[in-house]
Each structure stands twice: as structure tokens, then as C-alpha cells.
Design goal:
Length: 341
């Protein structure tokens, strides 16, 4: 337990290993134990640790401090308290915002960043439709003034139009297409049968068969009630911290100036359940096409705005790519770490 603020301690797990510190940050709703099966795969690359953010698991649950500024400062305090110089930070999902905050505020403590399906708008801001429409309006006014100038050769006019407009029109068209074609989620996996709930191991076997991966036991025990007889009970209520994080607002990170690897699950995999007979394949395919278009839009934005970053796609990986496609993720992280000074 590491003290990071007055009356606030965070749970930190340490799997050992030698060399460069590697610190894992979980997504919202998870604790550091979500990495129990994954982290040991990295110990050949450095000393591997993970932190449970405030409000979750065994960490303290204060009433406040769930904005990215404070959450990022919590991670910084862990780095300082444990003397972890130039650590590689690996974040899943919403932890991408903490990675980007640390890259901006404490770049000297960061040796590299790895975003595991975490490089979305909360980690690298891409303008939304309102901003894109406003930008387009401004550019159209400038375009009107440009066209009103004395006649000039077509090639010169074409270059002037491109300089004024950029890709503003295309961005708004993409926004409108996304909003007009958003499909419903194509259903849900079947509920586990009584036999699937008789033990933690049976439940994990069911999730592997249904979702394509299993949550480690210690993490599962934070997510669901486990009865005295070992059976798996109901899902626990979501932590109030998750709601607090959602309402705290996000910062707009527009650049990342430390070495970075961004892993996107693209196209995302819904899991084996979506391939079973009786599932509406049309709805599944429509959703996956839309999801891939949205994911790729952000992945390409990451490539354009952070040209020094390595951006990788893992096809049909779950959002929990480090569980569903652990070997692929470990391989990419290993290659990235070997490139670092």
C-alpha cells in the first residue's frame, strides 16, 4: 500500500523482474488484479508492477479526487515513492488519460507509454462534430474571400483552395456519416447456466467459451460475489468511483512527446458468442463495420498527430486485448521496449 495523498493509499502489486520499471494501469471498473495472468509474461522485460487507482479494490475510497489531474498525480506519487525512474507505463482503456497526463506533466519520469485499446479521445483529443462544424464555417468564409480574388490559373486556385480548406469538409462528412449510421449493439452473450456458476473455475471456463478470455480469479472476486461454497453469485454494483470519473470531465491532450506504442483492437472481436447459430449476423456485421470505422478514425488520428508513435492493430482482439490476445500484446510491447534508449 502506497500513500499518495492525505488519507489515501493505493494498492500496488509487484511481480518482480529485473531492469526497467514497467507499471500497469487498469481500466475503469478494474483493479490491478486484472493483470494477474498477463503481468508475469512481462517479467523478462523489466520489473513489473501494477496499481489500483483510488476508489477501486483494496485502494482507499475518498469522496473526491477522480479527475484526471488527481488520478495522474496519484500515479506520479507511486513512481516517486517506489523510486521507479523512467518507467514504462502501460494503460488499458480509460487509463490512457492518465498516461497522457503523465507524459505532459512529468515526462522526465516516463520512459515510454503503451496504450492498450486506450488511445481514444480521452488520451489524444480529436475534435467532435460541433468543433468541426465551427471550423468548417470559418474556412468557408475564408474560401469565399479566396474565390472572390482576381482570376488566376486553375492549378494556383486549386492549391489556394486546398490551403484554405484542408480536410475540414471531409471531417464534417465523416461526423455526419457516423451519427446517421450508428447501429444498435447486436445483442448480448447468453447468460451462464447454473453449472457455469458452481465455481470460479467453471465460470472462467464459460467466459473463455463465450467471450474468448477469462478474468483472473482475484479480479473476478472484486466484480462478483463468491459464495462460501465457492459458487459465483451476482455482479457487484459498479463502484461510485467509476461514475465520479465519468462526471469529472476530461482534459484535451493534443500531443504526446515521449516514446509511445498505441495498440488498437481493430476490428474488435465480440467473442465466440457472436459466431453462434441463432445470432443475427446482419446486426453483428453492421455493428462491427461501424465500430471498425470509428476505431480506425481514431487510430489514423493517432498516427497523424503523434508521428513518432508506433500504432498497431490487432484484428478481432477484445477490448481486453491483453487477455484475449496476450501473446500478440506481449510481442508488441517487447519490440517497443527493445527500441527504447
Amino acid at each position: 500500500m502506497v500513500t499518495v495523498d492525505t488519507g489515501v493509499q493505493l494498492e500496488v502489486l509487484d511481480w518482480g523482474g529485473r531492469g526497467r520499471p514497467v507499471l500497469l494501469l487498469a481500466g475503469s471498473g478494474n483493479t490491478a488484479h486484472v493483470f494477474d495472468d498477463f503481468a508475469p509474461r512481462l517479467t523478462g522485460l523489466g520489473r513489473v508492477l501494477a496499481v489500483t487507482r483510488r476508489g477501486f479494490g483494496a485502494s482507499s475510497t475518498p469522496a473526491a479526487g477522480y479527475d484526471v489531474e488527481r488520478l495522474g498525480e496519484d500515479v506520479y506519487q507511486v513512481l516517486v515513492s517506489l523510486d521507479l525512474p523512467r518507467a514504462v507505463l502501460i494503460g488499458h482503456s480509460i487509463a490512457g488519460q492518465e498516461l497522457s497526463w503523465l507524459a505532459v506533466r512529468h515526462a522526465d519520469r516516463v520512459g515510454g507509454l503503451v496504450y492498450i485499446d486506450a488511445g481514444y479521445r480521452y488520451a489524444l483529443y480529436r475534435p467532435g462534430i460541433l468543433e468541426n462544424v465551427q471550423d468548417l464555417r470559418t474556412r468557408l468564409e475564408a474560401l469565399e474571400a479566396e474565390i472572390a480574388k482576381p482570376p488566376r490559373p486553375p492549378a494556383e486556385l486549386s492549391a489556394a483552395i486546398q490551403a484554405v480548406m484542408g480536410d475540414a469538409l471531409e471531417e464534417v462528412q465523416r461526423d455526419l456519416e457516423d451519427l446517421r449510421t450508428t447501429p444498435p449493439f447486436p445483442g448480448a452473450p447468453p447468460a451462464p447456466a447454473a453449472a457455469d456458476l458452481r465455481s470460479v473455475q467453471a465460470y472462467q471456463a464459460w467466459t473463455r467459451k463465450t467471450m474468448g478470455f477469462a478474468i483472473p480469479e482475484a479480479e473476478l472476486r472484486w466484480q462478483r460475489d463468491v459464495r462460501d461454497d465457492g459458487g459465483v453469485g451476482a455482479q457487484r454494483a459498479p463502484s461510485a468511483a467509476a461514475r465520479a470519473m465519468g462526471s469529472a470531465g476530461a482534459q484535451r491532450f493534443t500531443s504526446i512527446d515521449v516514446p509511445a506504442l498505441a495498440i488498437f483492437a481493430s476490428p474488435h472481436g465480440l467473442g465466440p458468442w457472436a459466431e453462434q447459430p441463432g445470432v443475427d449476423r446482419t446486426r453483428v456485421d453492421d455493428f462491427l463495420r461501424f465500430d471498425t470505422r470509428m476505431t480506425e478514425r481514431q487510430a489514423r488520428w493517432f498516427e497523424r498527430r503523434v508521428p513518432s508513435a508506433r500504432v498497431v492493430r490487432i484484428p478481432k482482439a477484445s477490448h481486453y486485448a491483453f487477455l484475449s490476445h496476450a501473446e500478440d500484446v506481449v510481442r508488441e510491447i517487447g519490440a517497443f521496449l527493445r527500441m527504447l534508449p
